[in-house]
TrEMBL record:
One of its GO terms (biological process) is epigenetic regulation of gene expression. SUPFAM superfamilies: Arginase/deacetylase. It holds the Pfam family Hist_deacetyl. It comes from the Archaea. PANTHER family: HISTONE DEACETYLASE HDAC1, HISTONE DEACETYLASE HDAC1-RELATED. This is Histone deacetylase superfamily. It comes from Methanofollis liminatans DSM 4140. Residues 34-293 form the Histone deacetylase domain. GO terms for molecular function: histone deacetylase activity.
Length: 327
């Protein structure tokens, strides 16, 4: 099975020394930990930069100009999102490389864009949660020039409020998010299902803390996979944040690195082009989770065992969300 990665040194240039105790974890050191899990025999393609026009197809031009102005030095834009003097260049590369991963997936090479800064919290006119431009949204918006429909699966610990907001009125993008309930940024409830033509094309699965693979697998098998099949997309893009790992201090979930291989397999079994873009993930075992994803993308994973029994609350949530699927 063909697969590859897109990454490069440019993504280390978005960096800012944070004072001790600041809690800032979105640094270039994180990417080094991610790349430690990249198998040596995986083809690695160089980054590709988006144009300003492609960014402005999603983000307010005034906001884009403001980011460009602020990124002439180093400063925090909010409590946890910063820019340095290279951040505008790096953010263009993150969005452009995500679209390049989509193009490779459509050509039969499932591809993981290992980029930073992440993007799924960025709204059309606002940065948030380490995110400057919404990499997934910029890439999908460009891809929709030639595709009919796309599905986005966001398995980051946190809800991708920006991606949801951008595609909320659209029936061409199915957005499926599984995340820890009552976590940052406080959005992503089952009642948030889209608006207008997009009603029913947003599916949110907020899981209670302590969720295991059994809970994730139930949502995937009972809700996300059937919804994607019903949507009949040309492509699946994963907003791949691995911060639901048990050793990630940002959350209270209990996934292990191999579990991400299982989730990847469930999406591969849809037999659709699959691209992934890096979102969050800050725990010591993050690199191992990346390795598990690539093992599955190459078709070398071990046969999946029984993930176990999900909690009653997860079963009830899945039954509730099943009613939202547009069959």
């Amino acid at each position: 099975m063909r697969c590859s990665a897109i990454t490069g040194r440019v993504f280390a240039k978005h960096d800012m020394s944070a004072p001790p105790g600041s809690g800032q974890s979105e640094t270039s050191a994180r990417l080094r930990e991610v790349l430690a899990g990249l198998p040596r025999d995986i083809p690695v393609h160089p980054p590709v930069s988006a144009t300003v026009e492609e960014i402005e197809a999603v983000h307010d031009p005034a906001y884009v100009r403001w980011i460009q102005k602020m990124a002439t030095g180093s400063c925090f834009l909010d409590d946890n999102t910063y820019v340095s003097d290279s951040s505008f260049e790096v953010a263009l590369a993150a969005a452009g490389s995500t679209h390049a991963a989509i193009e490779r997936a459509l050509d039969g090479e499932n591809c993981f864009a290992l980029v930073r800064p992440p993007g799924h919290h960025a709204e059309p006119d606002r940065q948030m949660g380490f995110c400057i431009f919404n990499n997934a949204a910029v890439a999908v918006t460009k891809a929709l020039r030639g595709l009919d429909r796309v599905a986005i699966v966001d398995w980051d610990l946190h809800h991708g409020n920006g991606t949801q907001k951008i595609f909320y009125p659209s029936d061409r993008v199915l957005y499926c998010s599984i995340h820890q309930e009552n976590s940052f940024p406080g959005t992503g409830w089952p009642e948030e299902i889209g608006t207008g033509k997009g009603r029913g094309y947003t599916i949110n699965a907020p899981l209670a803390p302590g969720a295991t693979l059994a809970d994730y697998a139930r949502i995937f098998s009972a809700v996300f996979v059937p919804a994607i099949r019903a949507h009949r997309p040309d492509l699946v893009l994963v907003s791949a944040g691995q911060d639901a790992l048990a050793d990630d201090e940002h959350g209270r979930m209990l996934l292990s690195p191999p579990d991400y291989g299982v989730l990847t397999r469930m999406l591969l079994d849809l037999d659709l082009p699959l691209a992934l873009v890096l979102e969050g993930g800050y725990g010591p075992s993050h690199g191992q989770a990346i390795a598990a994803i690539f093992t599955t993308l190459r078709g070398r994973e071990k046969k999946d065992g029984d993930p176990g029994r999900p909690r009653p609350g997860t079963v009830r949530l899945a039954e509730k969300l099943q009613k939202l699927i547009n069959y």
